[in-house]
Amino acid sequence: MLTRIDHIGIACHDLDATVAFYRETYGFTDVHIEVNEEQGVREAMLKINETGDGAASYLQLLEPTREDSTVAKWLAKNGEGVHHIAFGTDGDVQDEADGIAAKGVRVLYDSPRRGSMGSRITFLHPKDAHGVLTELVQKA
Ligand code: V0V
Ligand code: CO
Fold first, then answer.
1. 33 CA to middle of ligand 2, Å?
2. Whose CA is nearest to atom 48 of ligand 1?
3. Model pTM?
4. What is the DSSP letter of 77?
5. pLDDT tens per residue, range 95-107
6. How far is the CA of 17 from the centre of ligand 1 (A)?
7. Domains of the chain: which residue ranges?
8. CA 26 → CA 1, 19, 47, 65, distances in Å?
9. Residue 75 to residues 11, 53, 109: CA-CA distances in angstroms?
10. In whole angstroms, what is the distance from residue 68 CA to residue 72 CA?
11. Is any atom of ligand 1 closer than 6 Å to the C-beta of 65?
């Protein structure tokens, strides 16, 4: 089951400046930063609130680390802004993806990959989801 909005992914050119904006403007001070080379991003998870299933909801700020990354490509075309939404699962993320694939939505990965903070993640194609790049997250 999908039990929460795990995060909203936001593409930016300058991660440090964007983190500072969210901290100073809104007071979001719980920040986790890491690099994910496979995804080609340096990213910050800003915790917004805890959720009913014991997890949390975040904003994920994404800065590309290389020109051929998905986020760099997206920024070049669209500029900064909302890039994806991510739903959290209460069980195995691959089981959830298989169920959604059976409804005719393309799942981008054959098996889950490593996401932020040790999570397991996969993505659904935006063209099969009314224009929204959608991620599924199983927290660590
Ligand atoms: C592309 N399109 C999008 C989109 N990216 N639509 C909505 N939201 C997006 N973010 C549209 C684009 O406008 C085109 O539509 C069409 O899809 C094909 O796009 P493209 O520019 O040719 O790009 P592709 O096909 O090379 O790549 C698109 C996909 C790619 C979605 C396949 O971005 C991908 O594999 N994304 C999953 C991985 C990812 O995004 N990682 C970064 C976050 P028209 O123009 O043809 O109509 S990593 C993360 O979230 C982590 C680590 C975490 O949460 O822990
Ligand atoms: Co994400």
1. 13
2. 39
3. 0.98
4. H
5. 999 999 999 999 9
6. 24
7. 2-138
8. 31, 11, 12, 26
9. 7, 33, 22
10. 7
11. no
